């Protein structure tokens, strides 16, 4: 990996503490390891094993589980990059969970597949990387209505009527365009993981908003507002032994 990419990548203290894996949430434009397995993402609930995603983008899926030492990866802009480690079987997973994919059940699919491979809910650890935060993620009220009618959710996700201020923003936050709501996408993922029995201590959220806090060109939504460009952000994880 280039030195500049290494310097600007982010990691999870939760996953790093396990000791048997490597991982990174890379900055915009940096490439994952050369032999990474990753799929053609469709905002779906589909999850595959690493051997099915080689060569890269040879199948459609939004989650890849690593059962070997090959790195598995996903690419995002504002969607959630979720890296998963099973401390029982030493399997890993990379999951692309935008709003559409999360509501379709991609996180549940990844959990179910890992459990079928021998994991337990108390052995699964989740790191949710940089994504658009509630400070910049405006949705129309009709989307909230759809979420309230989603059969997968046991409770309404977290949202605010007034835009929250982000004291750590490095550039201006998003401006209101629809007079809608400000939605907590990482919070939705955490809620769904809790719903499936994952303890709070096994979930880490890297609170970095791609719109107002991350490196330049990290946000697709920001590019639609300012035309300042964006590039894919890869996140990867790999079992070392």
Question: Can you walk me through this structure?
Answer:
The chain has helices at residues 3-8, 13-16, 99-104, 106-116, 141-148, 185-195, 220-226, and strands at 21-25, 47-49, 63-66, 72-76, 80-86, 91-97, 124-128, 138-139, 159-160, 181-183, 203-205, 233-239. With 241 residues, the protein is an alpha+beta fold. The chain has a single domain (13-132, 185-239), classed as CNF1/YfiH-like putative cysteine hydrolases (4-Layer Sandwich), CATH 3.60.140. The protein has a 6-stranded mixed β-sheet. It is globular and about 50 Å long.
Entry summary:
Helices cover 22% and strands 22% of the residues.
CATH architecture: 4-Layer Sandwich
Mean pLDDT: 95
- Approximate helicity band: 10-25%
Please tell me what the overall shape is: globular
CATH overall fold name: CNF1/YfiH-like putative cysteine hydrolases
- Structural class by helix and strand composition: alpha+beta
- Mind telling me the CATH class? Alpha Beta
Secondary structure tally: strands: 12
Number of helices: 7
Strand order of the largest sheet: 2-3-6-5-7-11
| Proportion of residues in extended strands | 15-25%
Using the CA coordinates, give the radius of gyration. Answer: 17 Å
């Amino acid at each position: 990996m280039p030195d500049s990419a290494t310097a600007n990548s982010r990691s999870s203290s939760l996953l790093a503490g396990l000791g048997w894996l490597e991982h990174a949430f890379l900055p915009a434009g940096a490439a994952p390891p050369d032999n990474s397995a990753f799929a053609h993402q469709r905002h779906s609930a589909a999850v595959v094993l690493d051997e099915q995603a080689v060569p890269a983008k040879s199948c459609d899926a939004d989650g890849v589980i690593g059962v070997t030492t090959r790195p598995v990866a996903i690419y995002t802009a504002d969607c959630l990059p979720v890296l998963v480690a099973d401390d029982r079987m030493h399997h890993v997973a990379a999951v692309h969970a935008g709003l559409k994919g999360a509501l379709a059940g991609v996180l549940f699919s990844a959990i179910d597949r890992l459990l079928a491979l021998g994991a337990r809910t108390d052995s699964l650890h989740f790191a949710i990387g940089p994504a658009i935060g509630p400070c910049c993620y405006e949705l129309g009220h009709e989307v909230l209505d759809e979420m309230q009618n989603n059969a997968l959710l046991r409770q309404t996700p977290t949202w605010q009527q007034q835009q929250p201020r982000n004291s750590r923003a490095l550039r201006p936050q998003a401006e209101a365009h629809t007079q809608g709501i400000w939605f907590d996408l990482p919070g939705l993922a955490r809620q769904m993981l809790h719903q499936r029995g994952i303890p709070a201590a096994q979930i880490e959220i890297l609170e970095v908003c791609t719109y107002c806090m991350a490196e330049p060109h990290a946000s697709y939504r920001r590019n639609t507002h300012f035309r300042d460009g964006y590039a894919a952000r890869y996140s990867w994880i790999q079992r070392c032994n």
